[in-house]
């Protein structure tokens, strides 16, 4: 998943669910990273190079059993670290403090 160029950003998603495999499907306008099964305690990570025209945006859909979350995992120009922790009540990110980014929904 990594490109051999100067790195602009990266995204890390770690599964902290209670005994559940997490399905992670992330994409940008130009790249569909596909669906990945992430075991409890495991992490998925990718990095990417600069977009010459700006506007790099990665969004992810997460699924576990009958629950879903969709969220922006990285947006160029928005101060975030692209580091996410998935818990039973939702997805948490870090910046200067931990915050709840999105809660689980049922389809």
Short characterization:
It is built from no helices and nine strands. The radius of gyration is 14 Å and the shape is globular.
Entry keywords:
single chain, 107 residues, mainly beta, five-stranded mixed beta sheet, four-stranded antiparallel beta sheet, 9 strands, disordered N terminus
Overview of the structural elements:
This protein is mainly β. It is built from no helices and nine strands. Strands 4-1-7-8-9 form a five-stranded mixed β-sheet, with no helix packed on it. It starts with 8 loop residues before the first strand and ends in a 5-residue tail after the last strand. Residues 1-5 have low confidence and may be disordered. InterPro entries: Self-incomp_S1 (IPR010264). Belongs to the plant self-incompatibility (S1) protein family. It holds the Pfam family Self-incomp_S1.
SSE order and pairing:
Layout: E1 9-15, E2 22-27, E3 32-38, E4 43-48, E5 57-64, E6 67-75, E7 83-87, E8 90-94, E9 98-102
Parallel strand pairs: 1-7
Antiparallel strand pairs: 1-4, 2-3, 2-5, 5-6, 7-8, 8-9
Order of helices and strands: EEEEEEEEE
Morphology: globular
Overall helicity:
under 10%
What fraction of the residues are assigned to beta strands by DSSP?
over 45%
* Unreliable residue stretches: 1-5
Q: What characterizes the major β-sheet?
A: 5 strands, mixed
- Per DSSP E runs of 2 or more residues, the count of β-strands stands at 9
What's the helix count?
0
Radius of gyration: 14 Å
Q: Provide the structure class.
A: mainly beta
The order of strands across the largest sheet is 4-1-7-8-9
- pLDDT average, as an integer? 85
Whole-Å distance between the termini? 29 Å
